[in-house]
Specification:
The structure holds two protein chains of two kinds.
Chain A lengths: L1 H27 L3 H25 L4 H38 L1
Chain B lengths: L1 H19 L5 H25 L4 H24 L4
Classes of the chains: A mainly alpha, B mainly alpha.
């Protein structure tokens, strides 16, 4: 149990550090593609690490399964949203070039 | 311990995303919103542990689905391909 607790705390703090650094980077840069680069670190590494770390501390397998489901959802849907945002910028540029 | 983690995540994770969601072109703001919805999901899960209220996890689950749908709708709207 002690080992699981240590793993959980370590994963949680790694996730928080990654999320904090990527969020600060996201606020600092101005170009959209640079910003999406930081957002992908938040949605694919930082937040799933925090969620999985809480799954280690969950009271039963049902609660742990729910947390793993949330982590998988965030891990799977983040890149889709980022690709859609980048595609929107590409379409916008194409329309500007055509006009 | 988890309370400290919540405060750090709120101040160093959610606030910069909020700043990013308030500055720049509409698509730049959308990028900040995508990051913010993920960070708030993680924050709700940490709060569920900190206050020992498992009900907050359900809120995080709903937010992870609705945040994705909302961001995708905005992105498709900006691409004029909805």
């Amino acid at each position: 149990m002690i080992a699981l607790h240590i793993v959980s705390v370590a994963l949680m703090w790694i996730g928080i550090v990654v999320t904090a650094m990527a969020s600060i980077g996201c606020a600092v840069v101005t170009d959209l593609y640079d910003r999406l680069h930081f957002v992908s670190a938040v949605t694919s590494i930082g937040v799933p690490l925090i969620v999985v770390s809480q799954a280690f501390e969950a009271s039963g397998w049902r609660a742990a399964l729910k947390l793993v489901l949330i982590a998988l959802l965030l891990f799977g849907t983040g890149p889709v949203t980022i690709a859609a945002t980048a595609r929107a910028r590409t379409r916008e540029r194409q329309r500007e070039d055509a006009a | 311990m988890i309370g400290v983690a919540c405060v750090v995540l709120l101040l160093c994770g959610a606030v910069p995303c909020l700043v990013g969601a308030c500055r720049g072109e509409p698509l730049d703001r959308l990028a900040g919103l995508v990051a913010l919805s993920s960070v708030v999901t993680a924050l709700l899960i940490l709060l569920a542990s900190a206050f020992a209220r498992p009900a907050y996890v359900d809120v995080a689950l709903v937010l992870s689905v609705l945040g994705f749908a909302g961001s995708l709708v905005f992105a498709r709207f900006f691409a004029r391909s909805l």
